[in-house]
Write a structure and sequence with these properties.
The chain has 203 residues and is of the alpha/beta class. The protein has a single domain, classed as 3-Layer(aba) Sandwich (Rossmann fold). The chain has seven helices and six strands. It has a six-stranded mixed beta sheet with strand order 3-2-4-1-5-6. β2, α3 and β3 form a beta-alpha-beta unit. α6 packs across α7. The longest helix is centred in the middle third of the chain and has 18 residues.
Length: 203
């Protein structure tokens, strides 16, 4: 049995401004840094064999704060990057709601049909993310693995772990900043043990 602890990065400036991030860089806010520190206290007694991190700046900083003193060397994986949002990246959501209302509605509510030329599809994101998860299971049998990644990617993984179709991404829970998600693979079957746990933010 391999157990994987997946964490969404802390709050960023783009989150606070309600901008589409995708793979564009943005920094953690002071609140985002405190969120990562709070989660560190919750995870400090767990023995992790590996730390995998999206190479984007917000995830790198979250991982740095989250694992201070853990003795883990981060392994950066492009497969863990957020969904590529192309020419929408950096735009205010409110502006997109005005200019691309129908297409944005497809992005949120009909993910199986979202196919903007400058963006990744949800299927592409789920395929690369799922491949990374399966590799972690092969490389760390019977161990605990820590992953720091992104919200939309985690939504796609939720449907992968639940053996659901791409359409169900629309209804998958979107993790909050530093929301903790725990999954296991036992006897070849994935199981979601916890999802978007934010108890550390109220302690």
């Amino acid at each position: 049995m391999t157990r994987i602890y997946l964490v969404r990065h802390g709050q960023t400036t783009f989150n606070a401004e309600r901008r589409i991030q995708g793979q564009m860089e943005s920094d953690l806010t002071p609140e985002g840094e405190q969120q990562a520190i709070a989660l560190r206290k919750k995870l400090k007694d767990i023995s992790f064999s590996a730390l995998y991190v999206s190479p984007l700046r917000r995830t790198r900083r979250t991982a740095e704060l989250l694992t201070e003193g853990f003795g883990l060397e981060p392994i950066y994986l492009d497969e863990l990057k957020e969904i590529l949002m192309g020419d929408w990246q950096g735009r205010l959501v409110s502006d997109l709601e005005t200019e691309f209302a129908e297409e944005l509605d497809t992005f949120w509510h009909h993910p199986e049909n979202f196919a903007r030329p400058t963006c990744e599809t949800y299927q592409q994101v789920r395929d690369r993310a799922a491949s990374a998860m399966e590799a972690m299971v092969r490389n760390h049998p019977g161990q605990n693995v820590l992953v720091v990644t992104h919200g939309a990617l985690l939504k796609t993984l939720y449907t992968f772990f639940k053996y659901q179709p791409i359409h169900d991404i629309a209804n998958a829970p979107h993790p909050h900043s530093t929301g903790l998600c725990v999954v296991e693979k036992r006897d070849g079957v994935w199981a979601v043990m916890d999802w978007d746990n934010v108890d550390h933010l109220s302690e």
